[in-house]
């Protein structure tokens, strides 16, 4: 039995499939044109327990672990959703974990840290103000790390936060921020020393705070239903109580949660590949040329067989690595390899799937066309393929 094929997870798949069929498929094309998904979709997903999968019940989640989150991600795409939909609906998967961890949620309870002078930290207050409402579908959060002059080099962040009494004064800018247009709050990486020092902290900044502006909505190659924005901070005063964890611990917090983000992207990649194999197989069975179905030709059958093999091999490896991460193993190198393996398989499969669809595959009416566009970001987000190769090389002792 697969690690994601228990009776409980089969029920989770059925729940997810029903949600996609009922709430997503009739509207996805319209959301792509609108450039975002409606806020009501978050509330609907929360009501049936999908939004909180992978988050502890102690912070308002539905319970489960990384493997349960993988099941939801995989089934959404396999049921006809998209990685763009995942990005839009589950942005809290990267916006909330730092708050949950700082409050002790990962160990099943809310623990308090301390500020200097013995003052109790309010990490549990952040859970009440941001985590619970987001998992209930009434708020939307985003994570802001990438800046106009840097992305993967997190230590080089230049957005500053200068302490001024009970507040930080934040100045800087962020870009490529997923859900940045719709977000009610942004978990923001800031430098709490001089710019580029690597001394980072995480602040939760509310939309509407004076000096915080959402710039232009960015138009993209893919992920059309996922809004993306530029953010600007000019003398934004943020209460110290909105800091996540201790000062200058942000870099470690960001690094610790990269594994889950990268495995989510890897899951989106192999699931997209699997879905495209299904679409291409169905097309080749139904499409006839010169009096015969495409699937009757050896060349086509072998191409489909190769696509299927790549997708299934990627899925198996990602599941193996995810199981080790869920068990608490420090498998940084393996996570990087899993992401690259899945992305490479996805790139090859979506290209072949569109080719097999011929002219129809190039039209917006074709589901495979959306997957072709959406797939391109997966080798960039969460750390580029090249950065993953650097991590892998380091793990080899190079």
Automatic annotation (TrEMBL):
Instruction: Please list the coiled coil stretches.
Output: none
Answer whether the UniProt record assigns the keyword Glycoprotein to this protein. Answer: no
Q: Give UniProt keywords alphabetically.
A: FAD, Flavoprotein, Oxidoreductase
Q: Which residues form the Acyl-CoA dehydrogenase/oxidase C-terminal domain?
A: 248-396
* Enzyme Commission number(s) of this protein: 1.3.8.7
Q: Where is the Acyl-CoA oxidase/dehydrogenase middle domain?
A: 142-236
Q: What class of enzyme is it?
A: oxidoreductase
Q: Which family does it belong to?
A: Belongs to the acyl-CoA dehydrogenase family.
What is the protein name stated in its UniProt record?
Acyl-CoA dehydrogenase
